[in-house]
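Protein modeling request. Please complete all fields; requests missing the sequence field cannot be processed.
Requester role: graduate student
Desired output: 3D structure, C-alpha cell encoding
Chains: 1
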Amino acid sequence: MDETTVSRHLDAIEEEGYCIIENAIEPNLIEEVRTSVARLENDLDIQPRGNRAEGFATKRMYNLLAKDRVFWKLPVHPNVLPFAEHLLDEECLLSGTTCMNIGPGEVHQGLHSDDGLVNVQRPRIPFMVTTIWAFSDFTAENGATRIVPGSHKFDHEPRKGQQVEHVPAEMEAGSVLIVNGGTWHCGGANNTDNDWRLGISVQYCQGYLRQQQNQYYSLSPEEVKAMPERLAALCGFTLYKGIMGHVDGASPGRFLGAGHADEVAYAAMRTKNGVAES
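Delivered output (278 residues):
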C-alpha cells in the first residue's frame, strides 16, 4: 500500500476513529483461512461460550498463531501492519488473534473500547489498534461490527444504559476494518436465518503494555524459531527499546534459542574501553 493511501486512511482514523480498507486480503488467503477455520471448528468442537461478551451464538477461537500457520500471515500483512506501526510505534506488540464466527440469532454484544482497561484519562493516544478482517461479507443484518464514529475523542467509556447512535461497518469479504483502540464498537446482532459472519480480530498494543493473549505460553519454542523475524518481534520475543522484557539479561528469543530474536538487554549501554558496544 502506497504512502498516499495509508495517509488518507490515517486521516479518516484521526477524524472518525476507524477506516475500512477494501480489497486488502488476497483471494487465495481468504480461501486458506476459511478452510482452516472450518477444519479447526470441527476438530476442536468449538461451541458458543454463552455470555454477552463472547456471544451466545458465536463460535470463538483465541491464540490463532498456535493453531495453524496460515494465521501467521495476518499480523505482518503489508496492507495492515503499517497502520498499527503508525498509530502505536514500530515496536508495538501483537496483543491477540481471535476468530469470531457470528451465527444466526446472535444478540448485540454491547459497546466497549478495546483499551478500556488502560487507566489513563480520555481522550488519549491509542494504546491498542484493532483490525477486523472480513472473511465473509459484513452486513447490517448478519452482525457487522457496530461503530460509534468519533468516540475515540470522548472523555469517558460507554456507560451502562447510555443510548448512543452506532453504525454498521458494512464491508465485503476481503476488506479490513482498522479501529483506534479507544473507539466504541461491538459485534452486531445477527438477524438472518442462516448467514454466518466470519471475521478475525488481530489486535496490537503499545510495546510496554501487557498483551491480552499470552503469546509466550501459547507458542512452542519450535514455532518461535520457525516464524518470520517480524512476527517473532510482534509476539514479544525481542526486547522493547532494547531493554524491556528480558530473561536474565537476554531477549526471550535468545532464551528459546531463536537466533533471529536474539538480543542482549542494555546492549547500547555496554562499553568496552570507554566505547559503547551494540
